[in-house]
Amino acid sequence: MKVREIVGLLDAKVFAGADQLDLEVQSACGADLMSDVMAFVKERVVLLTGLMNPQALRTADLLDIKVVVFVRGKKPTPDLVAMAEESGMILMTTKYSMFLACGRLYEAGLRGGGVREIS
Amino acid sequence: MKLTYSIPSMDFSAAGKASTDVKKTLAQLGLDRDLVKRIAVAMYEGEMNIAIHGGGGTAEIEFSPDRIDILLVDRGPGIADIALAMTEGFSTASEEVRSMGFGAGMGLPNMKRNADEMTVESRVGEGTSVRMRFLLGAARCA
User: Fold this and answer.
1) Which domain holds residue A42?
2) Which residues of B touch A55 (CB under 8 A)?
3) CA-to-CA distance for B43 and B132, rounded, in angstroms?
4) Looking at beta carbons, which residues of chain A come within 8 Å of B107?
5) Residue from A37, A103, A97 nearest A67 by CA
6) Above 80 in pLDDT, residue B142?
7) What are the chain A neighbours of B23 within 8 Å (beta carbons)?
8) Nearest Cβ partner of A61 from B15, B20, B33?
9) A35: nearest CB among B17, B33, B106
10) How many domains does chain A have?
11) d(Cα B130, Cα B142) in Å, to the nearest integer?
12) Contact B100 A59 (CB under 8 A)
């Protein structure tokens, strides 16, 4: 799925990386705890999170995640936008909650994600 | 080559910068992308542990032709039960730390999963040290 399509599905406002919306993603990860992101993330991922701080972007950067969506209408601060631009990331905000945002992407066919057996 | 970083306690704006720097260095060395990501994740989890639980400490990254060794040392309260701390989901993090996006109880397990070898040594009241080894150019047995 192209990031451009995600922007439309989530009725999102793009704050950084608007020139990269033709990028393809294969899976999504919705999480507010960054260790969970690090435990599950694979390749070509869009991260949806309610955590709006430098650690969310730092985690994404370390995992080569190029697309971050802040849920629940959280508008990124200028320092976060600058950080995303410096890392070459696409940063956007959606008015939808985590549940609704993930549901919209899943319904549109973005199915890949981390699955682990119950130990 | 050896890199050394001082990691401050509870400084969430700085925490993770050492890992970001190490990742950039590894990428510049032309190492395999998957290996770089594994090292970056393990180092980042360790760095956050030092900042959150360890009262600050140090990270040393040593590059050898066949491996990369990371030594993380903190000045924290120590871990009374290492096996319990290695359990996925077990966390002693405060609500404040959780609100910053940490404390999922996945830190040490994530480090172990990503490293080829890992040892944890801890003394209650003195601190904790974690050694991780990443092998270069060898097939990984996960």
Assistant:
1) 3-107
2) 12, 15-16, 100-102
3) 9
4) 35
5) A37
6) no
7) 62
8) B20
9) B106
10) 1
11) 19
12) no
- Range of lowest pLDDT (A32-36, A91-95, B132-136): A32-36
CATH classification of the domain holding A17: 3.40.1390.20
Predicted pLDDT of residue B140: 57
What is the tens place of the pLDDT at every residue in B39-86? 999 999 999 999 999 999 999 999 999 999 999 999 999 999 999 999
Average pLDDT, chain B: 92
State the residue for tokens 């066949």.
B66
What are the residue boundaries of the structural domains of chain B, listed by start? 2-135
**A115 in a domain, yes or no?**
no
Q: What is the pLDDT of residues A53-104, one digit of tens each?
A: 999 999 999 999 999 999 999 999 999 999 999 999 999 999 999 999 999 9
Sheet holding A13-16, edge to edge: A13-16, A90-93, A67-70, A45-49, A27-30
Q: Which residues of B touch A49 (CB under 8 A)?
A: 101
Q: Helices A54-62 and B17-28: crossing angle, nearest 10°?
A: 20
Q: Residue A116 falls within a domain, yes or no?
A: no
Question: What architecture (CATH level 2) is domain B2-135?
Answer: 2-Layer Sandwich (3.30)
Residue A118 covered by a domain: no
d(CA B139, CA B142): 9
* Residues B106, A32: C-beta atoms closer than 8 Å: no
Q: Is residue A114 part of a domain?
A: no
